[in-house]
Known about the structure:
By secondary structure, chain A is α/β, with parallel strands linked by helices. Helices cover 40% and strands 13% of the residues of chain A.
Amino acid sequence: MRPALRSLPDLARDLESGGITSTAIVDDALARIAERNDELNVFLHIDEAGARAAAAAADVRRARGESRGPLDGIPYALKDNIVTRGMPTTCGSRILENFVSPYDATVVERLRAAGAVLLGKVNLDEFAMGSSNEHSAYGPVRNPHDPERVPGGSSGGSCAAVAAGMAPLALGSSTGGSIRLPASYCGVVGVKPGYGRVSRYGLVAFGSSLDQIGPVANSVEGAALAMRAVAGFDSRDATSQDAPVPDWSADIGGGVEGMTVGVIRELLGDGVDSGIRERIEAAIDGLEAGGARVVDVAMPHASWAVAAYYVVSSAEASANLARFDGVRYGRRAADPSDLEDLYVRSRSEGFGDEVKRRIMIGTFALSSGYYDAYYGRAMRARELVRQDYAAAFGRADVLLSPVSPVPPFRLGERLDDPLAMYLVDALTIPANLAGVPAMSVPAGATDGGLPVGLQIQAPVGEEGRMLRVAAAWEAAGEGAR
Amino acid sequence: MVSREQVLHVARLAKLRLSAEEEERFALQLGGILEYVDHLRELDAESVPAGGEPGDSTPDPRPLRADEPSPSLPRDDALGLAPATDGETFRVPPVIDGGGGV
């Protein structure tokens, strides 16, 4: 098997034993990118020279017995809304077309310290606003399993990179499902840590109370190793959780014997494609066979989650994107007649349609006369969703559901109907509202061969529990696929 | 459900200018989205206390950091990407009579 398609732990073991070099892995990754990037439009920026130099440095360290650990010499792709000093950060937008950040995100610093090799920046929905990676100013990303279909979004580039064997690891970000959805559509593992677990310093803010950076990998253990390398308190992120980071991969093979898994029945009804339901039911059966007790749980306020999310996230986005004004960085309109003209034209020329829509929804929801009716009510709905989780976790250790109600759809299919696009996130949004850890693990394919993802959610602080269940399914599912 | 006037008002607040075609398209799309989120009215709003941020569920208030100064971004780095600068500050068109147009 080509190196970049192998799992991260597998590569780490081989690097450790001297069976392969980082240079060989990175060479293969770069070759794979060259083969498929034109077709799939994954990478917006590739740092070939930097990656080769970092790989060589990792090989030198290993030869000296100074390896930094399992990520040393492993190549990864970075979603282009996470800032890097040495290369551009566009956020998939024209407004940041030539922007190069003067600082690195915390996650970039931590991965560099661990020896990981940054290949480049990958495509996304503009400012992470989207569910299909069709809203990028630099063109859509295509699903490696079927290039006529979407990879999911907004971390479409991150997930397509791993699925296409361009890298065994990527980082994405999630505000309402933007890691889990593309991971499920691309048949890879995607993890959204609990809120506060991974520093947001250097993640271009969309919905500050919702955003989290998380790993995408082709194995559960790979995602766990990467998440451990980047997680942990960061004084530069005021929402960063000051809690110890467990060694998630140590316990990952513990199995599900004695665990109770809660199936969210509302989310397995007629609104979900039957092919997806079959795969999820098979996964539940598989976990039961592995010793888990299965109970049904209810999430009665799930039906309000999408509405609450689109008000809260858009309100936060309208505030966060106010900084893009053409003054200090980014695109500035030519020959502005006055300051107002500078702001208005820079923004109007630089932002795409979906971004403008969200800014306007948010501005409306926060405006005088509408604040209580929209934002106030949305925050109350959010609290009810949190209460639903508290009740559900009183009965089960983890919660199971599909990730998406529909399989990966064709490019263009939902572009003219923003609301139809928003409803694709209905199953993933609640975890962001409540701040709980959530992930997607591959669960086979529909009859048409389209990837299906199983969503697993755990209480705040319990990423380990969630990863254990995912690993148990991954081990069992190999046979079922 | 959303009038052209409302769209223009919100656009003005958000410092956005829309073409006539965008005004019409956004009025329609925003109308549909807002009609959907109006669903939130079905909640008995009085029975639920307003929720806070995810971190608010922690028992102790978030501790403050020690008041110790540390270096911030060097000025040259901050000015490095500015569209227009005089070497010390960002240059913008003059603010005339309170900014014009608001």
